[in-house]
Amino acid sequence: MAHENIANSIGFDGVWVDVLMPLQADFSIDEPKLASHLRNLSAKGFENFVLFGHAGEGTSFSADEKLAAMTHVIAAGVEAKNLLLGVSSSSYTEAAQFMRKAYGLGGRRFLVSAPLYDQPYSHIGLFDYFDQMIRQVNQSDWQLFIHQLGGKNQASDLPEATLADLQKTHPQIFVGIVDQDSHVNHTVELIRAFDTTLAIASCHEPNLTILSPTEVCVSALANVMPNTIKHVIAHDFVNNATKVPGMKVAKPDDRVTELMAILDNYPQVAALKLMLSQHYRMESWERVRPPQSALTKEAKAKLLAAFKTFNLQATE
After folding, report:
1. Does 288 map to a domain?
2. Higher confidence at residue 134 or residue 121?
3. What is the pLDDT of residue 151?
4. pLDDT value of position 235
5. Is residue 281 part of a domain?
6. How far is the C-alpha of 288 from the C-alpha of 274, rounded, in Å?
7. What is the pLDDT of residues 57-96, one digit of tens each?
8. Cα(241)–Cα(236) distance, rounded to whole angstroms?
9. For residue 64, which of 105, 235, 245, 267 sits 20 to 30 Å off, Cα-Cα?
10. Peptide bond into 213 cis (omega under 30)
C-alpha cells in the first residue's frame, strides 16, 4: 500500500511501543523505572516510543508531569526525536502551550486526540480546534499525528472531511493518523482515503496481519513481546515461530491472538501492567493511575494463571 512510503519518508516506521507508565505508591510517575523500561526495550532494538498514549494512561497526567517525565528520559539517553507525545485537552490553547514547552525540550512529534464532548462537535468546530492549535504552536518543523480513539472514550473521532481539510491546510505538519479502533474496517477506510498523503498506524495488533504489508504500528503488546510484534508487521511468521515448552510451535500472529484472548476480558492496561510486573519481578508495576482501578484479587489470580500457561519467552 502507498502509505508505507509515507511512513518511511517521515521517519514513522517500525514498531512504536505504546509505553506503559510505572507509578510510585502515591501514583506519581516513577521516572527512574520508566527510563529503565525504555533502556530494556532499546537493548532489544526498539527505540521508538509513544509516551502518554492509550497504554500510558495519558489523559490521567498533567502537562507538568508529562514534561518532567520527558525531561528525565531524555537525560537518561532517549533521543527526543524517537518520542511521540500524547496530548489530550479540550482547550486548544492549553494543548498548544504544552506542545511549545515540549518542543523546547526537543519534542517534534505529537499525538493529539480530539477534545472531549458533551454533544458531538461539528466538522467546522473540530477543524478550527486543530487549526488554531497548530497556529498557536507557531513552529514549522514538527509533526502532528491525530489519535482516532474509535469509541474508547467521549472524544470525537475526526470525520474524513475534517482530516482532509487539515491535511490540505497544514500538509507539512499533519502527517499521520494513529487508529485505536479495534475494527479493521475502520483502519482500512482511513488507508483508502489517505494512503497517498498520511501515514496510518493501527494500534490493534491482531489486525496487523490483515493490513499487511504495513510499515508501522503503535503497540501496547510491544511492552512485553516486542520481537513478536516486529515479526508480525514484517509478515515473517515461519522463520520466527516460538517454541513454547510443553506446547507446539506457535507463529508470531498466533501468539498475538493467544495473548489478546487472555486480555480481552480484563482492562488491558491493568492486565499488561500485571504481566510486566511478572517479567520484571516488581509488584509496583501493577499500579494504575486513578480514575483507572486496580484488578480485583480474583481477576489477578485468573490472569496470573493464564500468563503462566501462555509462558512468555525471553526471545519474544
Report:
1. no
2. 134
3. 63
4. 81
5. no
6. 10
7. 999 999 999 999 999 999 999 999 999 999 999 999 999 9
8. 9
9. 267
10. yes
Domain span at residue 161 reads 3-235
Residue 263 within a domain: no
The DSSP-derived string for 144-170 is EEEEE-TTSSSBPPPPHHHHHHHHHHS
* Residue 29 phi, psi dihedral angles, 5° rounding: -70, 130
Average pLDDT, the chain: 92
CA distance 207 to 214: 11
Strand partners, 143: 109
CATH of the domain at 98: 3.20.20.70
Asked whether 278 and 311 are in contact (CB, 8 A), the reply is: no
- Look at the block and give the residue holding cell 501468539: 255
Specify the pLDDT at position 119. 73
Q: What are phi and psi of 217, to 5 degrees?
A: -150, 155
Q: State yes or no: pLDDT of 29 exceeds 90.
A: yes
